[in-house]
Amino acid sequence: MKLEFDVLGLADRLKSSSSYFDTFINKESLAAGVLVLQPGEEDTQEPHDADEVYYVVSGDGFLRINKKDYAVSGGKAFFVSKGTKHRFHGNKKELRAVYFFGGQDS
């Protein structure tokens, strides 16, 4: 298994991809990936089967968790428990975040 990842490079490649996220580790006990949303781009994710942590690298906007909006900015981290509805929205700048699942990305 690969042990080193160029997260910024992965984020840059998403700009020319049809997807706005890339899960670069997907093991039974842990998953990790990068998410890049352009202004106006829709976050279409559904609730997950594992707890999740987002670390915002850069950008702005909001993360809606259970109908409550949390302001997003670089350096903030957010916890979303499994089965919880959540999505990023309202960013006026490119939003970049790294995510970690306490299990596989499903």
Show unreliable segments: none
Q: Could you say which structural class the secondary elements and strand pairing correspond to?
A: mainly beta
Question: For the residues shown, what is the average pLDDT?
Answer: 95
Distance between the termini: 20 Å
Largest sheet geometry: 5 strands, antiparallel
The helix count comes to 1
Portion of residues in beta strands equals: 35-45%
The helix content is under 10%
Q: Give the strand tally.
A: 8
Shape: globular
Strand order of the largest sheet: 1-2-8-3-6
Q: Note the run of SSEs as H and E.
A: HEEEEEEEE
Structural Rg: 13 Å
Your description of this structure?
The protein is mainly beta and 106 residues long. The chain is built from one helix and eight strands. The protein has a five-stranded antiparallel sheet. A three-stranded antiparallel sheet has the order 5-4-7, with no helix packed on it.
